[in-house]
Amino acid sequence: MKSRLLWLGALALVLLIPPAPAAGAYDPLASGSTTIVFSRGFGQLLREHDVKLESRGAARVRGDRITFPVSGGRLDPVTATGLVEHAGAVVFRAGNRRLPMKALQLKTTQRRSPLSAKFGGGKLRLAESSRLETSRAGFGLAAAVQGIRLSAKAAVRLDKKLGLPGAFEAGQLVGRARTVAEPETAAVLPEGRASLDLEPAFAVKLQGLFVAVNPVFPAEHPGPFTFPISGREIAPDGAAGTIRLAGSLELLQLGGGQIFWADPYLDLGSGALSAEADLEPSPRLPGKLGRVTLLDLGAGSVAADPGARTVELAGAPLTLAAETARYLNEAFTPEAPQFAAGELVGTIGFKAQAR
């Protein structure tokens, strides 16, 4: 009866799994850079007035190029739109006068004036007229801003702060910019399945204790145990993120205990598999535990395909957490414990499709 109720509950959860995220959902940005290349005329203008460029923090100056590292922001990879934030600063210096430019932002929704920065005080648009082109670049964003022409407010700020009245004018061609930004994690589509292969020695031990391992829909057991991927997020290098799986495993001992592990989560950052654990009530077992860490997740081989926007994990070992080993002993071998923390349960793998 309990198995039937859990089956119905799992089916209800499957029906409630949300569809693939639509455009408008954002991935957090974590790395990349924006490089602004001055036009020949603007570079010559700076040299004529002996204006030097100095880098601060993580920003870099090289000739007529200034580069700011991406420090945050958000990206809708479907529409290639979002906000790109940057760290570091570049200081324009003329004699003993200085004008810092920091907190650079690229807003792809502002097609004609996408670049802004704190320019010696408040935030200003750097240009009133430019052309923005954006595209998906693997898991992230590529953006090109052409024909950057100095805004009136930026020109006035340069004139006043550097003590060079009339040197800078609205509409002067500044140059172009190129941005490449990578997400910290990308949203995972509800596609594909994770595959769990039990370690032969562990499977033999369970068989010797008359413990059957049964999949509960939508988990299946056509060979390895498989679980549908139902979502969450993953880092492009597979080093972080959470993969949500659907389905359950039942561990049922003939004439003994019964344990359910329902709707597992793979936490790639902390290296753990957690699930809703239900240990059939008895004098030894606590019943429902809620979501707890059941298994420790080790390192497997990771293969990322930015073009296809997929991250594949293969052969990641799963070992018993200390509490899980204790509950298995209490459920199946109360007189002579046979399960220990760190014992290899099996290996797991999946291929996640990023949005």
Write up this protein.
- By secondary structure, this protein is an alpha+beta fold.
- The protein has 2 domains: 157 residues, no CATH class; 168 residues, no CATH class.
- Helices cover 15% and strands 52% of the residues.
- The strands form 2 sheets. Strands 1, 2, 3, 4, 5, 6, 7, 8, 9, 10, 11 and 12 form a 12-stranded antiparallel beta sheet that branches. The chain has an 8-stranded antiparallel beta barrel with strand order 14-16-17-19-20-21-23-24.
- The chain is elongated.
- 36% of the residues are buried.
Provide a brief overview of the structure.
With 355 residues, the chain is an alpha+beta fold.
Largest sheet: 12 strands, antiparallel
Q: What's the helical proportion of residues?
A: 10-25%
Strand content: over 45%
Number of helices: 5
Annotation, overall tally of beta strands: 24
Terminal CA distance reads 39 Å
User: How many domains, in number, for the residues?
Assistant: 2
Q: What is the global morphology?
A: elongated
| Radius of gyration using CA atoms only | 28 Å
Give the low-pLDDT segments. 1-23
**Helix-strand makeup class:** alpha+beta
Q: Indicate the mean pLDDT.
A: 92
Strand/helix succession: HEHEEEEEEEEEEHEEEHEEEEEEEEEHE
